[in-house]
Amino acid sequence: MALAREPAIQVDRDILPIFAVTREDRPQPTSFRGTGFLLAGPVLVTCWHCVHEPLSEEQKYGVIRETDGGYEVSELADLARDTNGTDLALARVSFGPSADFQLSETDAALGTDVWSFGYPLTDVHRKEDGRLTFQLNPRFLQGYVTRSFRHQ
């Protein structure tokens, strides 16, 4: 007898790279800034240190989602730091989530299985015509909680 496996979550649909992008009809990425994830509705959660720098008049923050043969960009609208002053930020995007990520209401107990996924190893290359290209190199880490940690 075979056991049914749960379908794999496509985390790259809801965990997205953040870029500074041009303010154009078809925004173009100019620099990689970090990673965020979609939560309930069109809410993106990220770290404040990824999006706190003021951008030039020609740029805005955006996330990129791959599509068949390309990508689509969504601006980070209503970008705001967590009111408690932590290293969290929220923004509204035009994408909706497909996975059902939720923030826990309790601390993770010792031994709890945890994982992380993001794009810390994104490569930036300049083509001969001067345009920038990006190679997203996702990283998935899996482990478990080994100790408590409180950041002041």
**Count of individual beta strands:** 11
Number of helices: 1
Strand content: 35-45%
What is the helix fraction of residues, given as a range?
A: under 10%
How would you describe the oligomerization state of the chains in this entry?
A: single chain
Instruction: Assign the structural class, choosing from mainly alpha, mainly beta, alpha/beta, alpha+beta, or little secondary structure.
Output: mainly beta
What is the overall shape?
globular
Radius of gyration from the alpha-carbon trace, in angstroms = 17 Å
- Point out poorly predicted stretches: 1-7
Order of secondary-structure elements: EEEHEEEEEEEE
* Biggest sheet features: 7 strands, antiparallel
Output the strand order for the largest sheet: 5-4-1-2-3-7-6
